[in-house]
Amino acid sequence: MTAITSKGFGKKIIIGGFIFLTVQYLSYLCIALFARDKPTEHELVGLLDKGPIGLQISVNSKFLQEAKVFDLILWNTMTGGLDRYGFNISHTKIKKFIGLPGVFNTFTTSLVVKRVYTFFVVIFHTREDNFWWHGPLYNDESNTGNSARAKPISDNLQFMRREGAIPRFELEEIKLFHYNFVLPKDIPAFLRATSGSAADFIECNYRAAEIFYRHYNRDTSEEAERFRHQAWKLLSRAKRILNDLEVPFWLSSGTCLGYLRQCDFIPYSQDVDLGVFASDYKEEIIPAFVSHGFELHHTFGILNDSYQIAFKYGKIKLDVFFFYLDQEKGTIWNGGTEARSGRKFKYTFPAFSLCWTEFLDLLVRVPCNTTKYIEANYGPNWQTPVTKWSWKSSPPNSEPNGVWPKDIWSKVINIRGV
Ligand SMILES: *[C@@H]1O[C@H](CO)[C@@H](O)[C@H](O)[C@H]1NC(C)=O
Ligand SMILES: *[C@@H]1O[C@H](CO)[C@@H](O)[C@H](O)[C@H]1NC(C)=O
Ligand SMILES: *[C@@H]1O[C@H](CO)[C@@H](O)[C@H](O)[C@H]1NC(C)=O
């Protein structure tokens, strides 16, 4: 199962049938591989001599159930295997409270394995919706041994320092030093997905959701269940369409509130709300939704001002709000339009960045400080359910923003649906 060569290069470690073995200075190596077909062995030795070798293994494990089994059996086997070859190993584990109803699970997120070289092993756990999740490489509290502790890794492996999510990518075997290594097939895409904060991941707060549901019963009426089911289908489709167009989006308004408060849709909200930066707008958006069975309901505003698109999918409405960066104020805003009067509204948010999260088994983005975003939109009492909500006057971050001139109404108030 485990084979380690005498110089400390992992030949191949196979767990659950997936291998993803790569070296420290991954970015350099990837760039080298990208810039030319293959770096020479000489170049690689030069690269490797500059620092420790990193090693990543992807594990095809069903996140909730199998990680536990994997933890107990496979890791022991592998650790034993490595031990026999004279490696010192230190494990990093993370304890997570996941799911509704929630359970505690402990996941091994990384290893530091040391003999001649230091190997950093980041474990990629397969999660629902076909993405790979990894924990932080360093986590002092849960480190189970320090004999192999290493200095924090270099900046180009930033993505390993925090929890991260990477949409699943294809792997490709390459031969180096007569051994097969596995690297991402599309290296530039891999680098984009892992550079800077692009992979940052936050977990839904299932503990808070449980407490919420202890106070407010979960609506399990047929109507509510039907809404949840249809909203999920809608979101899943919308996500696929926008992903295919490479348009990043996040859960906004009521959908984001439901995520933050109860890790679920809010049945009485009756729609699904997404945010998109206007700068990521693509002309293909409307045609793509329409060709996937969505009905265009309305568009309000123009691309540079208060733009929004609404679709109908079955009985549910999908609102796509476009957001604008106010560079001077360091804020982000979106607009609303009252169709009957042409009145405009502006909703202002503190600047935010986006994080991946898992929402009802779907990999989607939310503003990283979701609480801050929701507080801006719903006020400090967002935890209390409110069924009477006016999108014009209720949000504390709402302000009147003038009126569309009558002569452009036909352009900025465009209602198709009924
Ligand atoms: C492994 O750990 C032992 C005990 O802490 C230490 O004596 C030994 O030098 C370590 N070996 C390596 C290769 O770090
Ligand atoms: C949007 O563009 C129009 C010209 O096409 C311009 O008159 C208007 O001021 C712009 N609005 C904003 C909010 O930048
Ligand atoms: C997120 O925002 C909330 C509310 O504004 C604040 O209390 C909290 O400290 C922020 N969290 C982080 C990690 O910045």
Describe this structure in words.
The termini are far apart. The longest helix is centred in the middle third of the chain and has 23 residues, at 222-244. The strands form five sheets. Strands 11, 12, 13, 14, 15, 16, 17, 20 and 21 form a nine-stranded mixed sheet that branches. With 418 residues, the protein is an alpha+beta fold. 27% of the residues lie in helices and 34% in strands. The protein has helices at 26-35, 41-49, 63-84, 187-194, 206-215, 222-244, 253-262, 285-291, 370-378, 409-412, and strands at 2-4, 10-13, 53-59, 88-98, 103-114, 118-127, 131-134, 164-167, 171-176, 179-184, 250-251, 271-277, 295-302, 305-313, 316-326, 331-338, 343-350, 354-359, 362-367, 398-403, 413-415. It binds 2-acetamido-2-deoxy-beta-D-glucopyranose (3 copies). One 2-acetamido-2-deoxy-beta-D-glucopyranose binds at residues 304-305.
Q: Key terms for this structure?
A:
418 residues, alpha+beta, nine-stranded mixed beta sheet, 10 helices, 27% helix, disordered N terminus, binds 2-acetamido-2-deoxy-beta-D-glucopyranose
Mean pLDDT: 75
- Our estimate of the beta-strand percent is 25-35%
Major β-sheet annotation: 9 strands, mixed
Q: What characteristic shape results from the CA principal axes?
A: globular
Structure ligands: 2-acetamido-2-deoxy-beta-D-glucopyranose
Low-pLDDT parts are: 1-76, 139-157
Report the C-alpha radius of gyration, rounded. Answer: 24 Å
In total, the number of strands is 21
Percent helix = 25-40%
In whole angstroms, the N-to-C terminal distance is: 62 Å
Q: What structural class should be given to the helix and strand makeup?
A: alpha+beta
Count of discrete alpha- or pi-helical segments spanning 4 or more residues: 10
